[in-house]
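2024-03-11 09:14:02 INFO worker-7 job=invfold-0412 stage=load source=structure_tokens
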């Protein structure tokens, strides 16, 4: 398979649809063509008038860590255009201001998503689309494949009382959509009324994983270094809602999970006994260089995905948390600090999309019963999303 990205198609036409217009770019470090030229370079080489750039969480060059406010007072070095941060000190910073859009003729969005509801780029794109609609600005979305493929959906939809920047609109945890499909669905379902076009990929099929596309992997955020990371992320991002380390500060974020109270051999054996498909657990000791337990050696497990077509990352994350609670009791704590600008609800509830999973884990209930209920919701979503699917 050889996939041509939306940005490739734009470059092949010499950015003709951008010429003679005042253009804004919403992009980040992974906004590259197949030849690894960044969107800013593609536009510069074609003579596009780039008036302003916008950077999502982690910044336009993905150099900021998670939940770090990004300085907006910079210029993008390739085009020389000023950069507006869409991840600042408060929730209001997440959407472009009308004053940043009214002097544009076109906004171009090119962001690499990883197929999980928690990953914030889909919301940055949707918020920008909604803001553009409010001022009558046309938007061009350059589409990219979902690295996890597009034929699998996992998890229940975010509950109405638990919407946040890790779930701004009701979506399942693993949504199986491309960025272009997500914004198309949200525009129609939520009534944005946007004037936009999606420049689709060519040659991508829904069953294809990223390493089957012929495209290079460019990490879209500091802790998403490989496709292996993306595969486990829909389950292991849940660890952010706890006092466990999710491996930030190591070279294998989200594949290493642990804490100072964990016996790695006991935890690995207990997880192995569950019989989760497509994954094995190796006992490890690791020392994060920063983040939780920075500079401290902790015990935990390394996830080894042995069959990604069988592996269910969300179910794995659910069982991992339930097992840690069963083994270590109150040593496992839910994060109580503010999370993605929300202070009045627990981070774990925002990540799960509601309190039911946390309550089941704390009660020692059968979490697979919860999982089965989620999959009913997932199946319903998979059917309902059909009008917005762009690839077979």
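2024-03-11 09:14:09 INFO worker-7 stage=emit residues=392
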């Amino acid at each position: 398979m050889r996939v041509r990205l939306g940005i490739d198609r734009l470059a092949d036409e010499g950015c003709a649809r951008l010429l003679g217009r005042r253009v804004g770019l919403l992009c980040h470090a992974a906004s590259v063509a197949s030849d690894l030229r960044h969107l800013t370079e593609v536009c510069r080489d074609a003579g596009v008038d780039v008036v302003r750039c916008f950077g999502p969480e982690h910044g336009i060059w993905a150099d900021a860590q998670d939940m770090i406010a990004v300085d907006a007072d910079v210029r993008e070095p390739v085009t020389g255009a000023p950069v507006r941060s869409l991840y600042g000190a408060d929730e209001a910073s997440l959407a472009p201001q009308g004053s940043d859009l009214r002097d544009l003729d076109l906004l171009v969005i090119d962001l690499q998503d990883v197929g999980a509801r928690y990953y914030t780029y889909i919301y940055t794109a949707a918020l920008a689309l909604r803001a553009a609609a409010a001022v009558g600005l046309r938007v061009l979305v350059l589409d990219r494949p979902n690295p996890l493929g597009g034929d699998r959906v996992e998890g229940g939809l975010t509950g109405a009382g638990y919407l946040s920047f890790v779930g701004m609109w009701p979506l399942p945890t693993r949504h199986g959509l491309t960025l272009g499909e997500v914004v198309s669905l949200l525009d129609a379902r939520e009534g944005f009324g946007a004037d936009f076009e999606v420049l689709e990929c060519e040659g991508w099929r829904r069953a294809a994983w990223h390493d089957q596309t012929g495209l290079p992997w460019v990490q879209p955020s500091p802790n998403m270094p490989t496709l292996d990371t993306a595969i486990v992320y829909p389950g292991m991002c849940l660890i952010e809602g706890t006092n466990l380390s999710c491996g930030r500060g190591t070279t294998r974020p989200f594949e290493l999970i642990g804490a100072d109270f964990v016996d790695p051999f006991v935890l690995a054996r207990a997880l192995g006994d569950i019989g989760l498909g497509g994954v094995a657990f190796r006992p490890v000791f690791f020392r994060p260089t920063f983040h939780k337990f920075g500079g401290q050696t902790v015990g935990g497990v390394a996830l080894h995905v042995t069959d990604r077509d069988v592996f269910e990352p969300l179910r794995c994350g659910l069982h991992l948390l339930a097992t840690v609670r069963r083994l270590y009791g109150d040593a496992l704590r839910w994060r109580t600090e503010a999370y993605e600008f929300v202070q009045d609800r627990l981070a774990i509830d925002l990540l799960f999309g509601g309190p039911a999973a946390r309550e089941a884990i704390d009660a020692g209930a059968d979490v697979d019963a919860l999982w089965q209920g989620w999959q009913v919701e997932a199946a319903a979503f998979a059917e309902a999303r059909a009008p917005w699917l762009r690839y077979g």
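2024-03-11 09:14:09 INFO worker-7 stage=report msg="The longest helix spans residues 367-384."
2024-03-11 09:14:10 INFO worker-7 job finished
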